[in-house]
Design a protein that fits this description.
- The protein is mainly α.
- It folds into 2 domains: 1-96, no CATH class; 131-320, no CATH class.
- It is 65% helix and 5% strand.
- The chain has 16 helices and 4 strands.
- The strands form 2 sheets. Strands 1-2 form a two-stranded antiparallel sheet. The protein has a two-stranded antiparallel ribbon with strand order 3-4.
- Helix 12 (229-245) runs antiparallel to helix 13.
Amino acid sequence: MKDFYLLGRGELFLELLRLTAHMLDKPTTRTSTRDMNHAFQLAARAVFLSNSADIEKFSFELPYIKPIADATANSSLDDDSSVVADGWSTIILKYDFKWPLHLLFAPEVLARYNDMFRLLLRIKKTQHDLHALWKTYKQTRRFAVCQLHNKLMFLMDNLQHYLQADVLESNFSRLMDAVNKTNDFEKLKAAHATFLADILSRSFLTTTTSERSEGGDSSGDGVETITNPVFVNIMDLLKLCDSFCSMSEFASDREAEDYYIKGYSDRFNKLVKQLTQLLVCLRDRACGAYLARLLMRLDYNRWLSAEAELTRSLTHMLRC
């Protein structure tokens, strides 16, 4: 579970992103699920995991929802122009559980794991895209472009490290300790529930609103809309990074590039200020110790405080 839902096999998902990023950027179609699973098998083969028994138990689904406009227009079922949200927000990773694991990983539990999976996959994709741009900008003399690029990389690298090291690894170690100390299934189930609740809370994935796929499926595989304000802010930052990575089309137009860089920089400063203020507001909650670590990473050498022009409350918190 950790290797797949929590992206423990990083090399596998880097290869998968290389094969499917263009597909996930677009709205889903009726063939998206088939194409995604084919790419998953190719990625597993590329990193020498095709013979792993676990690979055969995992599969992807990219739910397709027929738009209301098409339904009212009595369009043909063969019309593949009917699309919904992009793949990043709808992708579902499934696992074929055997008894008695199905008692531990109920559909609603897997839905929460998929919330975590979608966030980690999106951050990994954005982080990879930003690092890939290093070759493009390493010799440029455009200081503003390099500066913004470095800021975005710094933010994504530290956010990814916070999630993988401070949240997932530390909580997974505690879960394994609890598992090794008990033979009681109910205690095991309680330890797993605590683990899942902790990683969701510390990843800002606790507040959700259901959106079910076509046919009213209520099996627990439905995609969730996260309304946590910190999560919404992080998603806005990811969108900003994606826009920056696609800015190469303006490379030959210096005036257009300057215009977009100015807009991206202003947007970045605004979002970072909002993010930090939100995290400061959560400092008195149970996850405050973890948020202090994230803030310390982001505010290394007081860089973020200066950029966002924050109040004394953040500085006081980080010194405590």
